[in-house]
Fold this protein.
Amino acid sequence: QVQLVESGGGLVQAGGSLRLSCAASVNIFSINNMGWYRQAPGKQRELVAAITRGGSTNYADSVKGRFTISRDNAKNTNTVYLQMNSLKPEDTAVYYCNAVWIGADYWGQGAQVTVSS
């Protein structure tokens, strides 16, 4: 089992920045893939950014150039980050951390991000 705890959400004006953190209960280098998803009211959950155990990243087209997924590369790290810059009102959503570990999906409880215009 993997527990994931998000933090860092909040309210920000358009053009501002926020950083989300996801703390895992296991060393993240034992996790195949970690990612950030988001779900806006009335919409399906969508992938925002992901990082593999090897460090490869991918992003949704809507956030490329504005969001960065990263991790501390120290051996015993357990946290993944999502740096969000140049935020837009359409980025408003609940952001969820996801981990794929031994073939199973794990989710955090979600962090609300609200961007005002």
The first strand starts at residue 4 and ends at 7. The two ends are 40 Å apart (CA to CA). The chain has no helices and eleven strands. The mean pLDDT is 94.
